[in-house]
Amino acid sequence: MPRSVLNGGLRHEPDPLGNVVVLVEGRAVIPALYTHVAAAAVAAFLAWSFQGARLGAELAEARLEATTQQLATSTAQRAADARVRQAEKAVAATYQGALNDALKKQTALQAAAAGAGRERDSLRKQLSAAEQRLADAPPGALIEYASTLNELFGQCSSRYTELAAAADGHAADAATCRAAWPVIPTPRLPAAGTTPNH
Which pLDDT score is estimated for 19? Predict the structure, then answer.
């Protein structure tokens, strides 16, 4: 049997091929091994817990940032919606005011037209009665009547000229408003069965 060599408490035993094997006392090494394995496991667990906590913090921060962004977007959207509603109310109020004014003007114009119709009918009756009186009137009265009619015709002619000038001005104003009103051009689609010209 080969002999054991003792070196610092370690026993070196040669094997049958002549190699030297170092034997260590099993009892003293096993508790140290358990301690190292336990320390490595605790270190791995702590590293894993730290990484998990760091990842959780990053996720929480990302969620907070996303929620903050959503809140800002939502607040901006609500503000924009409020401005749109306010603008719609202003447009509706302006439209309703203009519509009410137009209805009042229309009522006044209808009343004026009805009054003018009554005046016209009254003048027709007066002219009809005047025709009957002219047949029996003396020549001096006829001359005075013709002179009065000539003067009245001149006044009517000047009033009609003023009215025509005002109507032309109104027509020009209306045409200017229509021409100045913004128009969004719409593309003309080709008729069915035809191809567009390019």
Answer: 60
118: confidence class by pLDDT, cuts 50, 70, 90: very high
3-state class (DSSP) for residue 189: coil
Give the dihedral sign, CA 93/96/102/107.
negative
Tokens for 155, please give them.
């006044």
Measured CA to CA, the distance from residue 133 to residue 174 in angstroms comes to: 47
Spatial CB neighbours of 134, under 8 Å, sequence gap ≥ 6: 142, 145
| 50-74: pLDDT as tens digits | 888 888 888 989 999 999 999 999 9
CA–CA gap between residue 22 and residue 27 (Å, rounded): 15
CB-CB contact of 2 with 13 (8 Å): yes
Tokens of 8: 């610092």
User: What are the residues facing 78 on neighbouring strands?
Assistant: none
